[in-house]
Specification:
The structure is a single chain. The chain is α/β, with parallel strands linked by helices. It contains six helices and six strands. The protein has a six-stranded mixed sheet with strand order 4-5-3-1-2-6, covered by helices on one side. Strand 1, helix 1 and strand 2 form a beta-alpha-beta unit.
């Protein structure tokens, strides 16, 4: 099993809501591009997965990894579309609840997994991209969000994958899992 999971979340047919999946694919492309300073050779150290799920089902995807990089959309009241936020699971601790097994957010799923002895990644980086539209049926993001994609990809790679030394990168590989 790979050591790092890049998990792109969202719904790719609801305009900006698919940005997490888009960013995960762009990171994968950048890592495969041998002309990129971020490139590395195929191995089994990084998995890139896209998912349109939430709640406890997330646990099935993340079990056994050492590091998890989650990329998803967020819509706040005053945010500017395309803004990238880096948050921690602890930032959502006030939202942990279990009123119904069908209504479990990410933080609650992680907490339940830990309490049940599930092998949760030791390090979890969560990136949220501010979106404008998550209600229009479209496979395209809005212009504001699309413009932010290149910078967002580079930022996530630098912040979350930079801890792997350059010499190690040359011997690492990744695979896309659906």
């Amino acid at each position: 099993m790979a050591k790092i999971l890049i998990l792109g979340l969202g719904n790719p047919i609801l305009s900006d809501d698919g940005i997490g999946i888009e960013i995960a694919h762009r990171i994968e492309d950048k890592l495969k591009d041998h002309t990129s300073c971020f490139a590395w050779e195929p191995d089994e150290d990084i998995d890139v997965i896209e998912a349109s799920i939430g709640g406890l089902a997330i646990l099935d995807l993340i079990v056994g990894y050492e590091k998890l990089i989650v990329i998803d959309a967020i819509k706040t009241k005053k945010g500017n579309p395309g803004t990238l936020y880096k948050v921690k699971v602890a930032d959502f601790s006030s939202t942990i609840h279990i009123s119904s097994p069908h209504d479990v957010n990410f933080a609650t799923a992680i907490e339940i997994g830990k309490r049940c002895g599930v092998s949760i990644p030791e390090q979890i980086d969560i990136y949220a991209i501010e979106i404008k539209d998550n209600t229009t049926f479209s496979e395209q993001c809005t212009l504001e969000v699309r413009k932010a994609v290149p910078k967002t990809v580079n930022t996530i790679i630098r912040q979350s994958l930079n801890s792997i030394s350059t010499s190690k990168l040359q011997n690492r590989r990744f695979r896309l899992k659906n």
